[in-house]
């Protein structure tokens, strides 16, 4: 597991995972940090070494001194609160949007993307044609309609935002760091539901120098817009 030793915060970074959110945030805040990179198993799961960091064995996890913290939303909130309040400015009018979309990313949206991946995998690996058809029907009747509904919600919000960010301010906020990863996956797994505002949003944040530095330091990443 190669490391980039540059500071006190340690990001336990799993390839192609939510931890890419944390690298982007840290780069935007110009904070020193260290990456400990973990590779997925041949089955696509997190390696057992992550259980030595946190009991759930998942990523992202950060350590900051005596603090060990998991969950993307908690990590983003912790870093912004402790280190980023002078750089992450949520406009007063955008407070509710930032609050809502920060929780929405994992609370409502991400689960449908995960189901899409699971059912796709089951369909591809099904040995029986009837089982394959069952999983494909589950995607068609249960997963895709939800993704379409969520994509319309996000597209409409971005169309009405006074800026290019979810809270309507001049810079990304918590909602962007959390939803960006999910929207990259949407572009990759369900491009038929991606409108022009979502497409432009993903292209915009992926073009930011801080985001590019996070990708460079984090290593190979499957969900870039150019990979879709």
Automatic annotation (TrEMBL):
GO molecular function per UniProt: glutathione peroxidase activity; glutathione transferase activity
Catalysed transformations (reactions): RX + glutathione = an S-substituted glutathione + a halide anion + H(+)
Residue span(s) of domain GST N-terminal: 6-87
Transferase as UniProt keyword: yes
Presence of the UniProt keyword Transferase in the record: yes
Keywords: Transferase
A Pfam family the protein falls into: GST_N
GO CC aspect terms: cytoplasm
Enzyme Commission identifier(s): 2.5.1.18
Family annotation (InterPro entries): Glutathione-S-Trfase_C_sf (IPR036282), Glutathione_S-Trfase (IPR040079), Glutathione_S-Trfase_N (IPR004045), Thioredoxin-like_sf (IPR036249)
Family listed: Belongs to the GST superfamily.
Name under which the protein is recorded: glutathione transferase
């Amino acid at each position: 597991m190669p490391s980039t030793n540059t500071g006190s915060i340690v990001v336990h970074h799993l390839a192609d995972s939510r931890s890419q959110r944390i690298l982007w945030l840290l780069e935007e805040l110009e904070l020193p940090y260290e990456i400990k990179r973990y590779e997925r198993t041949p089955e696509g799961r997190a390696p057992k070494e992550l259980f030595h960091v946190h009991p759930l064995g998942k990523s992202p996890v950060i350590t900051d001194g005596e603090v060990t913290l998991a969950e993307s939303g908690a990590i983003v909130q912790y870093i912004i609160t402790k280190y980023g309040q002078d750089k992450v400015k949520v406009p007063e009018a955008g407070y509710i949007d930032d609050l809502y979309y920060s929780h929405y990313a994992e609370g409502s949206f991400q689960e449908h993307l995960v189901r899409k991946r699971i059912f796709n995998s089951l369909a591809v690996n099904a040995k029986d044609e009837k089982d394959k058809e069952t999983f494909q029907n589950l995607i068609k009747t249960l997963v895709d309609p939800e993704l379409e509904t969520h994509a319309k919600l996000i597209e409409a919000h971005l169309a009405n935002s006074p800026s290019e960010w979810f809270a309507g301010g001049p810079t990304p906020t918590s909602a962007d760091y959390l939803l960006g990863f999910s929207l990259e996956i949407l572009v990759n797994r369900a491009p038929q539901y991606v409108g022009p505002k979502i497409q432009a949003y993903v292209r915009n944040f992926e073009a930011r120098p801080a985001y590019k530095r996070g990708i460079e330091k984090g290593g190979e990443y499957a969900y870039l817009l150019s990979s879709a």
